[in-house]
Amino acid sequence: MNGERKFKLKKIVMTLFTVALLTFGIFSNSSEALAMTSKGAIKFQTDANTYSKHATSIVVTGTMSNHELNEGVVVDLLNKKGDSVKYTIVNGRNIRSFKVSFSTKNIPAGKYDVMVATTWGNQTHRGVLKHYITVQH
User: Fold this and answer.
1) Which of 85, 129, 80, 83 is nearest to 103 (CA)?
2) How far apart are CA 77 and CA 136, in angstroms?
3) For 66-102, how does the pLDDT look when each residue is reduced to its tens digit (9 = 90+)?
4) Of 89, 68, 79, which Cα lies nearest the Cα of 114?
5) pTM of the model
6) pLDDT tens per residue across span 33-67
7) How far apart are the C-alpha atoms of 134 and 57, rounded to whole Å?
8) How far apart are the C-alpha atoms of 125 and 54, rounded to whole Å?
9) Which helix (H) or strand (E) holds 61?
10) Residue 135 CA from chain centroid, whole number
11) CB-CB contact of 43 with 128 (8 Å)
């Protein structure tokens, strides 16, 4: 009887392990759940890599370095040609973090970049995404 109990316990553990493994596999292949990070002087990220036709907004969050003086930031959504599609100005003196949201309404399907820039005196600091984000419709 003790051997039968061990067998049932082993079967339950293996089933739970399989479910956990499948769950991880499903979510790790979903690019929509992953955030896109930036490169450059300003660190930021988007809330996803791919925006499906059901997505309502593109959210960009970021932080400024503590030693960097600024007059706010400009967050610019650019098409693959480099043309500005939408932009937002975050006003404030010496801001440390920001969060902006772009509505996906009226944004054509395609690949897009996000650029964040700030200027202090004659210095301009920029950050761009490491890879394009995709908007689907």
Assistant:
1) 85
2) 15
3) 667 788 999 999 999 999 999 999 998 888 999 999 9
4) 79
5) 0.74
6) 578 899 998 999 999 999 998 999 999 999 987 66
7) 12
8) 34
9) strand 57-63
10) 13
11) no
